[in-house]
Amino acid sequence: MQPDAGDYGLIPDAALVTEGAHIAWLGPMADLSKQYASVGITPLAGRLITPAFIDCHTHIVHGGNRALEFEMRLQGASYEEVARAGGGIVSTVTATRDTSEADLLAAALTRADALIAEGVSTIEIKSGYGLDIETELKMLRTARQIAAHRPVRVSTSFLGAHAVPKGGDADTYIDEVCLPALKAAHAEGLVDMVDGFCEGIAFDVPQITRVFDAAHALGLPVKLHAEQLSNIGGTELAAKYNARSADHVEYATEADARALAAAGTVAVLLPGAFYTLHETQKPPVAAFRAHGVPMALATDWNPGSSPLGSLLLSMNMGCTLFGLTPAEALAGTTRHAAAALGLTDSGTLTAGQRADLAIWNVSSPAELSYGIGINPLHARIFAGQAT
Ligand code: DI6
Ligand code: FE
User: Fold this and answer.
1) Burial of 166 by CB count in 10 Å (0-12 exposed, 13-18 middle, 19+ buried)?
2) Which of 42, 205, 218, 338 would suit a FRET pair with 156, their CA atoms being 20 to 30 Å apart?
3) Is the pTM of this model over 0.85?
4) Contact 139, 154 (CB under 8 A)
5) Which ligand 1 atom minimizes the distance to the CA of 273?
6) pLDDT digits over 125-145, tens only?
7) Which of 300, 301, 314 is the best mutation target for the ligand 1 pocket, counting ligand atoms within 8 Å of the beta carbon and taking the most?
8) 151 CA → ligand 2 middle, Å
9) Ligand 1 centroid to 316 CA: how many Å?
10) Sign of the Cα pseudo-torsion (141, 142, 144, 149, in order)
């Protein structure tokens, strides 16, 4: 998956050497240095090794579920109508506030386990279902705890600007809750990145601008839910703030693609939400390709718009619904997902990178995107250890 290695950079009949937590060497078996001949060798019998997967956009810390809303939408209500009727994000906020940190952690661990079982080594997790200072901090502490309980890395995003609490005013909420919560969470070391939901039903460009200015003042990188349901300028704003990623981006334009490319911002495609919401506007994949915008794929695992617990399925959906190639899909859950999180130590198989590996019972990498509901994982290596 190295950037200049062609589609997959596949090395047939390969050997890969790990030393401690890192990759020491990889290349054709025939070139394996004699110095490694005496160390333990695990024959993989024709299996495929890829970088371990990275799910670069999730909301796996949350209380409750929204199966009732699923039923409502199947009877014809739109996502926006459900949100305006007090359902949607705000109902998960109530459930998350009412769930203890221990119970939140137990539920999130179950979700993390499902991802880990598909070869995921790194999970990005957002806050945003608290909308008060205490619960935003509780969510982020829970997210951090996951890495203490499972062999997985967690990258946290503060998403205080996710929704306006019921009966509240968006600007007042930003001033009185979101920005103070961000400062408190940062002071506790709970924030790796700052995210927002820039949308008609959430926050507009001037409001997100205030959140991004606060993030940059704290030295934190930003990312943004942009152009998911309409185009209101979020992608352009993300590019202006050198965001690590602009996510969803179904309604992004060619000009947006140009801006993302110039800023080096990753477009994170979330086909699980597209599928769940019966969206018909596809992200401008051809424009992203033409302008060289790196595309990542993630689950967006959340209880409302994307109750999707499979990164493999998001790869299949990225191909079938958005027209990605299987090679783009694999880059989307490895190299480009790492870039969306600002990680330079994983996402490819390169000497010196972390030995976070997935070993698959497949004979070609395209099989990873081709299967639907099939998990061909043989083994996962996390920081050099079989887990
Ligand atoms: N966009 C999404 O798809 C999720 N959040 C967001 O900003 C949906 C979250 C939810 O419906 O609970
Ligand atoms: Fe999301």
Assistant:
1) exposed
2) 205
3) yes
4) no
5) 3
6) 999 999 999 999 999 999 999
7) 300
8) 24
9) 21
10) positive
